[in-house]
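Dear support,

We are seeing what looks like truncated structure output for some complexes. This example has three components. We would appreciate it if you could run it in full and send us the complete token output so we can diff it against ours.
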Amino acid sequence: MKIQWLLAAACTGALSAGLLGAPHAGVSDREGDRRAKVGAEDAWASRAVWACDQRKLVIVEGVRADQRIPPDRAQLVADVLMDLMRYCNEEITAKIATDRMITVAANGKVYEHYVPGGPLPIAKASFGEPTRREQRIWQAELDKLVTEGDRLFHSDELGTNGVACAMCHPHASNTHPETYPKFQTQLKKVAVLRDMVNWCILNPLEGPELAADDDRMRALEAYILAQRAGTPLWAGKH
Amino acid sequence: MRGKRSGRRRRWPRRICSAIAAVATAALAGAEELALPVPPGVLPPEVPADNPPTAAKAELGQKLYFDTRLSTDGSVACASCHDPKHAFADPRGKATSAGVGGAAGTRNAPTVLNAAFLASQFWDGREPTLEAQAVQPLINPIEHGFADHPAVVAHLRGLADYPPHFAKAFGSDEITIERVGQALASFERTLLSLEAPIDRFLAGDAGAISESARRGWELYNGKARCNTCHGRIDVIPLFTDDLFHNLGVGTQRIDFDSVARKAAAAVDAGRSIDALALGDAAASELGRFLVTREPKDLGAFKTPQLRNVARTAPYMHDGSEATLESVIAFYDRGGNDNPYLDGGMRPLGLSDQEKADLVALIQSFTSDDLERFEALRGLAR
Amino acid sequence: MYRNDMTRKQIERALAERSPEDQRLLQTLENCDRRHFLRVSLKFAGMAAAAGIVQPHAFQLVNVAHAATAPGADPEIAFRFAYVSDTHLYARGMTHRFAKAAVKAVEDVNALDPQPDFVLFGGDLAQLGRPDELELGRQILRELDAPVRMMVGEHDWYLDMGELWKEMFGPDHYSFEHKGIHFVVLNSVVEKDFWTAKGYTPEQRMAIVAGLDDNRQSPFEVGEAQRAWLAADLAGVDAKTPIAIFSHSPLYKLYKPWNFWTDDAEQVQAILARFETVSVIHGHTHQLLTNRIGNIHFHGLLSTAWPWPYAPEGLPVYTVQMARSDPFNQFDGCGDGRVDVRKSGRVDKHYNLWSRNPRAVTAQQLASGTIPGPGGYDGPSY
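Here is the complete output from our reference environment:
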């Protein structure tokens, strides 16, 4: 991290020289090529600024390739490049629009806008990283199942005698799902979590066992496991 | 043993001499350690370090086991109540066994077959090993009848045919009660049989047991709630949890409530528990409590193993259930209520078909190879 | 190898040195001997132990320490009371497991000899505060021979805010003197109103409070009004008078997510601070639970209905936990018990755990800070 910092500081220094001085000072040939590709007309004008690592790019809109970037926006460019370089080593492109709204893109995906100094809305992994939208959807689905499991866990509808799982397991405590599979003395064999759930339904709750593919069993397992998220697995621990 | 130094014989310490002699004798007698007949995947029975099984010890044990001279009136041997022709239980089919002079007891004789695997012996688990168990009936006045262990030893010493067997088994012909126990235990450790239709069924042979028994197996592990106490664990397939439970057996024959409560109160007050013996049957019914003196063990008896139970009627510690059907009915109604009834007992609501299925299942626990034990006899005098 | 190496002669000699009463009793036992399978050593195991003869352990003689806690034997015990708590009854007939358990507790208490001076009911008689549940509870507790002191729990209260409870069982907080001890019974399950704003019906309110882990409810408290009442009640009591507080919630702060908690615990403890000897007996936690804060000893009650697990944090260091219970056995982890009140006013708490070895937590252990673990095998009978 420290090296990146020094690198970034050095590059920014060089950058500032490049921005405030002649375009060619401190700027590589590669940059020159890219500049040529970017449009030169004012209305569509944009100027590309590369960081010295050749992987971070900021495109400033409304500035021609041969124009000096106004100081305040130049500072913004520098800030953005610093943030991007501190964040990771991959290629990231940021675009500063004429109204100073900044968007960032990586791996071909465009994200929401970003404020320098704030969190970067980019996932660091290179391949197949779920989008924020996908993550939201998936979490909502899981929450739905966990909530249903919570409801069943606390209700008396699984058994026939008014006993609920939560009576002996408030907040799913003392369920230890991370210790399965283990030899379960009541079953006299090695059991997995759903075996014990069914045994409890049959015995202290005096209700009918659930089929292995019953959605209610899925919901109960989801709730129990969600309460113990983050606990290391330890199969066989008694 | 001659020393290597010329002209001098080293005097070896006597202990080493006899140890070497013992080993030599044992080796000569072919008494290397006996391999117990345990199927693959099953944990072998625990054997005390000081009594590894040998053929000679087992033979001596067999001789003792069948010998009716090992009783004060010459009528009772181990085999009298633990008869190999009756799956090593009492052949007379009465609720409880009778000893010298026909004296009747209060406990039903459990089978010796596979007893080597159990964690404790006797209905109240008061002895942990076969060695310790085997010598207790000898000095019980209503079993073999000897006054004490020295009397047993003295009696044996008077029988001329025993010293050579002791010598063969233990390296010297000295007869001690420890050796008697060790020999009997070594013999009993050879009485293992874990090959029954249920085992073949669970190994994958679906046709090994009947359709009814297959349904019984589902019930056994489900609605009938058998397997938590009588569970079959693959590595020790005995159908017992080696623990003690109060089912209420026998609690209705006596004023168990008041005897049990007084016992608990006596312990609580630090008084002698003998103070509550109100009668013979009462004291016996306290069960495991007499060993641990914990109120939770009042009226609790050991979960018996179920192999071959179809052949060892009647059932329960007092033999009060005559048939498998009546045992199932007993559980179906949740046992007999009493202040210390095990909280796991409850009415099961079994249908007639389900009860029949359970009986069919239990019959599949009978070993395929009982005939080979039936041929066992005492050794010639 | 053999656990019994006492000859009959040795035992008989030991017996000859016993008191005449014990000898008579042993004669009876000897007569039993002739018709029994019982071994000689076994029959006299208790006698031998009492005679101080060490028995090798095939029998696992355990907890001879029971003798130390004997009420008759210890002249320092002034009186004792029994308890039945947290029955959580459903009105589903006498064969329902909670009803059977409550009856079992009543029978245990009735079998105590000598009888306790009174029986404390520790709260949560009903499960959902319903009239039929409370009525079933009253019928069951009516079978107790000794007089009963009632205490309310949240399961009894929040259906109708205690109206039926007060009608059936009297005030929810009161005090009384008994043999020099000043007893106070509190309603320590008061909750700040969480239901009006949300528009919950009484049944919904009760269902929320009935969920131990339902954090929509408020934390328990004694409340300002009751604290004022307590201060006034104790105003005339001398600081040397031993105080015993019956409370449903623990009167200290153990674990808020399960309402093992009293929000104004410090203020209540402050009122009690000037007294030399204070014991708090509380329900709600359904487990063996012990604490000491300053001059106050806290003892939890067992439930007859089901055990709670131990909280993931906040457990007092004084608590020696009961082992994890086996749900195959409906009585495991449950029970009843009694409290021996010493002449000093301090209490010894006796837990009568069904299916387990009984446990005692004494005032002396709490004072010294060392509560011994269970002796012998305390595992489940499964």
